[in-house]
Amino acid sequence: MSSLNHVVLIGRLARDPELRQTPSGTAVANFTIAVDRRPNPDGVKQADFIRIAAWGKQGEACSSYLAKGSNVAVEGRLQVHRYQNQDGQNRTATEVVAEHVQFLAAKVRADMVSNGSASLSPEVDLPEEADWQEDPSIPDAGEGIGSAG
Questions:
Q1: Is the pTM for the entire model greater than 0.90?
Q2: What CATH number belongs to 7-107?
Q3: Following DSSP, what letter does each residue of 40-60 receive, concatenated?
Q4: Which portions of the chain are predicted below pLDDT 50?
Q5: Which residues pair with 76 in a beta bridge?
Q6: Residue ranges covered by each domain of the chain
Q7: Percentage of the residues of the chain whose pLDDT score is greater than 70
Q8: In the chain, pLDDT over 90 holds for what percent of residues?
Q9: Distance separating alpha carbons of residues 65 and 107, to the nearest angstrom
């Protein structure tokens, strides 16, 4: 029987990413995103807070360019960790291991403003244009979706 473990989420960072290195030197950024649920019947808004782990260069980029409140799309797989806490009780932790993180809206980090590497204007310093990849599935401005030719 086949199986599938694929998660796609859009949300806002609940706090700044935390970047650390494994003993072998691999970077990993951990952060939590708040994903809105539909309001309940009484109209009360709710959100789920989901832990994300982004590894390697992607984790470094997340740490450098994301901040609390940043809007992101995360695509990855669900991973469950089982462990015992200090009291010997069995615990379970679930996180999404990010395969792709897309920055949906720029959010200036406070330390970038204080050291002058970003401005408070809508134009925020982002990675060099050479680091961006075009999505061939998005039509150019002159092309309409479903247009012939």
A1: no
A2: 2.40.50.140
A3: -TT----EEEEEEEEEHHHHH
A4: 117-149
A5: 7, 98
A6: 7-107
A7: 70
A8: 65
A9: 8
